[in-house]
Each structure stands twice: as C-alpha cells, then as structure tokens.
Design a protein that fits this description.
- Helix content is about 50%, strand content about 15%.
- By secondary structure, the protein is α+β, with helices and mostly antiparallel strands.
- The protein has a 3-stranded antiparallel β-sheet.
- Strand 1 and strand 2 form a beta hairpin.
- The radius of gyration is 17 Å and the shape is elongated.
- It binds FE2/S2 (inorganic) cluster (FES).
- FE2/S2 (inorganic) cluster (FES) binds next to helix 3 and helix 5.
C-alpha cells in the first residue's frame, strides 16, 4: 500500500518537474530545485521592501563589507517566479561592489533565466526594484 502511494507521489513529482522544465526552461528549473538565499537576514546593512502591481510583496536584504556585497537574501509572498527572480537578484548581487548593483535590472534577471512566460515577466522587474530599494537603504546607512 505505502509502496504504491510512494510510487504515485514520485510519478506526480516527476510530472511536476517535467512541466516546470517545459514551461520555464532549465535556468528556472535548476533554481526552483535548489533554492538559495531564502529568508530574512539579521542585521542587514540595508533592506528593501516593495509591493508590486500584482499585490505581491518582496523583501531583499543586503550585507555590505567594505563596499562589497558579502551576503544577500530575500522573502516573497508572491508566485514561484518571484522567488526565482529574487534568488537571481541575490546571486547577481553577491560579491559585487555596491555601485555595480544598478546594473542588475529586470532585463538582466530575465537574461540569466533565459526569459519567463509573459505573465511572469513583471516578477523580474519587482526583484530588480526591490534590490535597488535595498541598495538605497544601504546608501542611507553610509554603506
Ligand atoms: Fe506577483 Fe509574480 S510577483 S505574480
């Protein structure tokens, strides 16, 4: 009984994996399977919080050391794509000099992901805007 239930669950998971891969492509799939940078950060240098036009809210936390991003993390109450886009924003920000963060635009995030379905494109722009808001907060701290 439990074996057939396990098999059913495995098959279902496999179908979901396949669907995500087909709809969103390999770059999104890889990050969806290996989530990183999720969760709030204690004592960040700066934190940005933006609610997008879709009504979802994202936060990005940055820690700067000597003008370089040493750590980044995010939270979102939005869709799966918003989590993947926030992850990419963190991925791109880490180890960068703070002044380089303005180059992390919605287009840059979409570029890393190889694009997103049209309905999800705005999630990348929300991630970029949240990152800029976190950077602004760092600058206000003198970071
Ligand atoms: Fe709102 Fe993706 S962030 S739908």
């Amino acid at each position: 009984m439990s074996n057939s239930l396990d098999e059913f669950a495995d098959r279902l998971q496999e179908e979901i994996n396949q669907e995500v891969m087909e709809t969103y492509g390999e770059q999104v799939y890889e990050r969806w399977r290996n989530p990183r940078f999720g969760g709030p950060m204690e004592n960040p240098t700066g934190r940005g919080r933006v609610t997008g036009s879709c009504g979802d809210t994202m936060e990005i936390f940055l820690r700067l050391e000597d003008g370089i991003v040493s750590d980044a993390s995010y939270t979102t109450d939005g869709c799966g794509s918003s989590a993947v886009c926030a992850l990419v924003a963190c991925e791109l920000a880490i180890k960068k000099e703070s002044e380089m963060l303005t180059e992390i635009t919605g287009e840059a995030i979409l570029g890393v992901l190889g694009g997103l379905p049209e309905d999800d494109v705005h999630c990348a722009f929300l991630a970029a805007e949240t990152l800029q808001s976190a950077l602004d907060a760092c600058m206000r701290q003198g970071g």
